[in-house]
Please model this.
Amino acid sequence: MAALDVARQAVADAGWSSDDLREAALLLGTSRGNAAGWLSPWPGRRPFKLMAASNTIHSEPAAAITIELGIHGPYQVLASGCSAGLDAVGMAALLVNGGIVPRALVVAVDLPLVPFLLDGYAASGLLAHNQRNDPYSPETTGFIPAEGAAAMTIEPSRPGSPRILGYSANSDACDPVGMPKDGGRTVDLLRIAAERHGAPQAICPHATGTEIQAIAEPAAYRRAFPGSSPSLHPLKPFTGHTIGASGLVEAAICAAFLRNAELPPNLPSLTSPEPFSLPTLATPASGPLFKLSHSMGGHNALLVLNPP
Model:
């Protein structure tokens, strides 16, 4: 199971003991849980009769992780579409920073490469039909789907690790599949986060490559930061769009670079919306990095990361 594999890796990297795990919380983000397993043959599914019911519900991966790792704290599953992974990180940080739990394990997984699920995206006009994975290009036509899983541990303080400065979310309440062309309420998230934590040095955008996203995201950045231009670091050109896992997959990549006080590079030849830059080399990180995710239905989420 992908979720369990990445959870074990994150716990080993953090050096957590069985006592640490016992008191931890688990937050899991996914758009569909185990849906792929009962819609199509799926090698990650556990085919025991005992699992017949739980294999069909969103919470089964979270339950499996708590059982296998001995986590006795609370677990919650967030299924807020493409923002689920980032929402899981944010909610976990709130639990830890609020003193409700001593530490938290965050996991996100999505395995959407099943014909029935992909047909729904295609019917909505969201899938790329020219295979161009350049999110801000005038020729972009949609996203490239992918499967993925990631995990992250969160503690009140860990020397040498990036810090989560803040998390916030809101809704556009505007469109079932897109976001307003002017950036909608993402602008509010960006402005408030900048007031609280300082202007971003960089933004890791959602940047799926849909036509509306290619217009709306740069519009939001221009409105939120007139006269300044944080660098952009879209990661889906490397990973594809892992749907509900994407927010955590990309936050984990950003955190890995921030550990070394660097920002992730961009693929060469990507289209850069004015007046922003897309550096093609890893550059020094000295200030906040804003990570954004957006879900169908107008849900927007923002995580603020800072180098150690």
Remarks:
- The two ends are 32 Å apart (CA to CA).
